[in-house]
Design brief:
Number of strands of chain A: 0
CATH architecture of the largest domain in chain C: Orthogonal Bundle
Distance between the termini of chain C: 10 Å
Structural class of chain C: mainly alpha
Shape of chain C: flat
Helix content of chain C: over 70%
Chains: A mainly alpha (295), B alpha/beta (343), C mainly alpha (310)
Strand content of chain A: under 5%
CATH superfamily of the largest domain in chain C: MetI-like
Distance between the termini of chain A: 28 Å
Oligomer: heterotrimer
Structural class of chain A: mainly alpha
Number of helices of chain C: 12
Number of strands of chain C: 0
Order of helices and strands of chain A: HHHHHHHHHHHH
Strand content of chain C: under 5%
Low-confidence stretches of chain A: 1-11
Amino acid sequence: MNSKLINKIGAAGFNPSQSTGFWRGACNRFCYNYFALGSLIFILVLAILCIIIPLISRHEYSTTDFANSLIPPNSMYWFGSDGLGRDLFVRCFIGGRITFEIAVAATVVVLFIGVMYGSIAGFLGGKIDNLMMRIVDVLYGIPFLFFSILLLALFGQSLVLSFVAIAAISWLDMARVVRGQTLSLRNREFVEAAYICGVSKFKIITRHIIPNLIGVVIVYAALVVPNMIVLSAVLSFFGLGVMEPMTSWGLLISDGSKNMSSWWLLLFPALLMLLTLLAFTFVANGLRDALDSDS
Amino acid sequence: MLPILKVKDLSIQFKKRNICINAVNKVSFALDEGEVLGIVGESGSGKSQTVLAIMGLLAKNALTSGSVKLLDQELLGLNNIKLNKIRGNRVSMIFQDPMTSLNPYLTIQSQMTEVLMLHKGISHKNALNESLKMLDLVKISDAKRRIKLYPHEFSGGMRQRVMIAMALLCKPELLIADEPTTALDVTVQAQILELLRELKNELNMAVILITHDMGVIANVCDRVCVMYAGNIMEGGTIEDIFYAPKHPYTVALLESIPKLEQDGNDIDAKLKTIPGEPPNLIHLPAGCAFQDRCSCVHEACRHGEIEPQFLGESHIVKCNLQFITSGAVMQNSNCHLASKTNI
Amino acid sequence: MISFIIKRLLVAIPTLLAIILLVFLLVHLVPGNPFQGEKAFSPEVMQELLHQYRLDLPLWKQFLYYVNDLLHGNFGQSYKFIGQSINELIFPDDLGGFWVTLRLAAYSMLLTVPLGIILGCYAGLARNSWFDKVVIVCSTIFSAVPVIVAGPLIILLFAVTLNYLPASGFADGDFLHLVLPVGILTLAYLPTVLVVARGSVIDVLNSNFIKTAKAKGLPTRIIIFKHALRPTLIPVISLLGPMFANVLVGAIVTEQVFALPGLGILTTNAVINRDYNLVLGITILGSSLAIAFNILVDIAYFFLDPRIKQ
């Protein structure tokens, strides 16, 4: 009837993630975003360093050396040494390793629960969806930090368990996002078009809905990792989480802020964490821009 | 006597980084008191941008050239303060989508009276009375109660009536209606068009009606401009355009109107369409903008600027064909003009 | 209006109850009892203690008693400081506990909201100007850097290296001691408000009814303040509900960083001492505040958007 309408339906009738080269296009767009690409490389290099440095360093992260305590950065101790004479350089990277491990493990749990919960609520819709989202609302009402503290205090004996528990209350946003996306996808023209063409429900889910969810999930995962890093650091400030002599960035910063006259104790771990968080933000922004097929 | 509105060689370009979009190209037309001018065209043909330029409402990155005169006053390049004295006062506009064109957070009363208080400088009480009168005029019953309501409490057709009432508050010399009926039900469409026609006669104003519906044009307008890719391809009276179309685009447009009654044994005939797509406004081809879709395209259409040609007093065509011998056209067997027109 | 508030309360009360039940169960399902600590009590004393804290009752009775106490504004007794009520710990007579946290959260909200709206709106109005770009870059960076990292670094810079401001402590809650913590907390939440306000302004200015207002010849001043301001504020207001809970949590983290004697220290001590009743009380207080604030936001919403009234 009118060419505008037909154009609109025509464009929306195609599944954007099915169009040839959508992922390649997204990849290209991401790679041309030098900020995001640089940040991704930074994170990868840092992660590799966190694995390698504690293995090859001449210092052991837990060896105390009271003769050399609180030494400012020099050629022997690149980042200086702490109150017990331990090398801060190697501690920063072993702390980074723990921090990354915690963050990645928690993110995996968050993604798993969030995507399952959200997509089930979105697919089923109706009363079940209502009930499931009501539960999310209830959990939302709890200030998450108290809850994390409570969980960590209860499961404190096991670091992994406690972070699984923390992840288990951090999936709320993810579930909401995935549910919203699923709901809107279900009503999108290309899903209706596939339905009309007689495509089976299973195929609609695997070919049309999941590929379109992946974009959102990837972007969101890039945001969950830094959140988990921050959360683990916050809990360190409350004396929860990683125990001495093992360390994490949060613990190092917490220690450093108690001993400000030895500035290096705070500056190096804080800078490392700052750069990592910024890098994650830029990667997430880059991913969001790259996967936004409208632009 | 001066025409109410005289647009001469109006061109609009949009600059975005180093890309330049040629939205409107040397458009000219004039409009007399009490006259209704229809502008038809596909989406992206520049009809909306043309009237937005008249209102001074183009996006910030737009470059305009040419002239738009309201009586003897030049509107192009006028600053906002001076334009604001004209907009809503001497020239009013109603938009396509009545559902979103009214502010949902303010009552109808507040949205109507502010226009009068601003332009006429009258008190709130007088403005309220005027507004009520205007709502009566657009046939909204129980105006006294309804003026206190918010837009979401009205139906689509009612909202468009409110929009019209609001546009007419200051008794403008020119009303611009940008697809006023596109978003409405067919039955409501007819009512709104009827209302517009009545009001035009009552207030003796000039109207520019933008639409892509040839039926609406035939119903309401005195004259028509057919736009394509930023150019006015053909302009003339209703009779000129509907009974003696000269431009291949106009002809194709008229043929693509679905007809209820089919002639003779042609029952299985498909809907006619114009093959191809409108040209890219960033890289317009040299010569005629319609050349790639035109069934009568000739070598001469691919070079140089096509100059508009006058055929009679008001009929104007931007096409080379008028000068090409009939033989040349006849050679092109696809040309649907060959059999219909006497060139 | 009244029926609207009642309706909201009817939704809020079960939510709060569900939260209380959840946290209560978590705390009470921990094996053992809070008095099985380093120093062993004799069985008689233990029995007496359990009875005093009603821990010898079945769980559901304990819960009912607890809710009943809460209804009387009583958070129960501390497990650690025997004989001391949690109310005294959370709401001390002098400046401390909840009052510090509240003060910190309130000051930074009072700064964040207007500042975020003004800067965000200005950036949105001057879209793509240098001001807009600076604001966007800054808010991206600030929102990426948490209090936990920025706080110590800023203390290092201002208080230790430059020696401009006091590093930590609260003294009597004087102005100088509050500058850094409130500033940090404000900067941490400013980007959220700002980005939403900016996006909202851009959306509203692109909306059809603003085009209508321009076509009516209204001057920019009236377009912005009469037509655009209210729809711009609505997304910002709806953001404030969840944000308040976050700021409260942020305030507690800030207290930890700046060593302020607020709920943060109380929580840390409670965790170290396994004073679960105190953690329970603080969690419930936080949740109720968050829910109360959400109701306030809904009421504000009610006044701002005429479409809700139906």
